[in-house]
Amino acid sequence: MTAADTLPAEVKAGADCTTMLEVRAGVDALDRALVALLAQRFAYMDAAARIKPSRDAVRDEARKAQVIANASVAAAAAGLPDGLAETLWESLVEASIAYELTRWDAGRA
User: Fold this and answer.
1) Is 32 annotated as a binding residue?
2) Is 103 part of any known ligand binding site?
3) Residue 96: how many CB atoms within 10 A of its CB?
4) Other Cβ atoms closer than 10 A to 30
5) Cβ neighbours of residue 68 under 8 Å, at least 6 residues apart?
6) 101 near 43, Cβ under 8 Å?
7) Do the annotations mark residue 64 as ligand-binding?
8) Can you give the pLDDT at residue 109?
9) pTM for the whole structure
10) Long-range contacts at 56-64 (CB < 8 A, ≥ 24 apart)
11) Cβ contacts of residue 12 below 8 Å, gap of 6+?
C-alpha cells in the first residue's frame, strides 16, 4: 500500500500536485487517514489492557524497542529521513502505554 492508495480519488498524489491547494488537500486527507489508523491502533491498546493480567505487564520495554525498531526499518525502506520513525514512535508508544495504563486501571475499578 502506498500513500496514494489511502487518498480519496479526488485528491492528487504528491508528485502530481501543481498548486498549494492540491498539496494541502492531500495533507489534510492523509491526516484524516492517520487519525483513523491511530483510532484502530488504540483499539488494540484497549484489548491489551483487557487481556494483560497485571498492571506491571503494561510497560514492556523489550516490546517497545521492537516496535520502534520495526518502524525504523519500515521508514528506511520507504525512504523517510533518518531518525524520523524513532522520534515519532517513541512518542506514540509512550502515549499508548499511558492510555493502556488508564484503561487497565478503569477495567479493574
Assistant:
1) no
2) no
3) 20
4) 15
5) 85, 86, 89, 90, 93
6) no
7) no
8) 81
9) 0.87
10) 58/97, 58/100, 58/101, 58/104, 59/97, 59/101, 64/93, 64/97
11) 22, 25, 26
Indicate the length of the chain as a whole number: 109
CA distances to 9, 15, 69, 87, 104 from 47, in Å = 33, 39, 23, 25, 10
Task: Parse the chain into domains and list their residue ranges.
Answer: 1-51, 55-109
Give the three cell numbers for residue 59.
510497560
pLDDT band at 106 (very low <50, low <70, confident <90, very high): very high
Tens digits of per-residue pLDDT, 27-71?
999 999 999 999 999 999 999 999 999 999 999 999 999 999 999
pLDDT grade for 10, boundaries at 50, 70 and 90: confident
Give CA–CA dist 11/7, Å, rounded. 6
